Amino acid sequence: MLNVVVLMGRLTADPELRTSSNGTNYCRFSIAVDRSFVRSGEERKTDFFNCVSWGRTADFISRYFTKGQMIAVQGSLQTGSYTNRDGVKVNTVDINVSDANFTGSKRESGGADQSSYTGSAYQGGGYSDRRAQNAPSAPSAPAPTYSSGSADDFIPTPVDEDLPF
Questions:
Q1: For burial by CB atoms within 10 Å, which of 29, 80, 81, 98 has the most?
Q2: Which tens digit of pLDDT belongs to each residue from 104-116?
């Protein structure tokens, strides 16, 4: 069986770190994800997903992410239910986040290192080279744009019987 969810969107509010009754840190937050398809003459629609992270992943998200910032999350879909104060049963669907990544620019993320937190191991970002931060950046050339092409733009690869794969 497979239960994998990968989403990229913007945080709708600052994530808030809390502690469960057994002492485990957790963080609940919501992300807004634009739909990729837009019907002609309509505005792009957005879906809102409730997320929860636990332990060190929760610490990482609450420390480095703020409202409006882009975030990429990976986890699993989790359903649940509870009875509210009026005695009505409420069904819930959450993304149980196991991995979180920065997706915007350093400027957008407040200058934080482009890193991620995966499960229980911090993936990068713990070390920063001060020389690299203070070095002047080389001007980057604009990326080439390809609006159209033709078959004449490609060079055919010779057919060889001994392919390397």
A1: 29
A2: 766 655 544 445 5
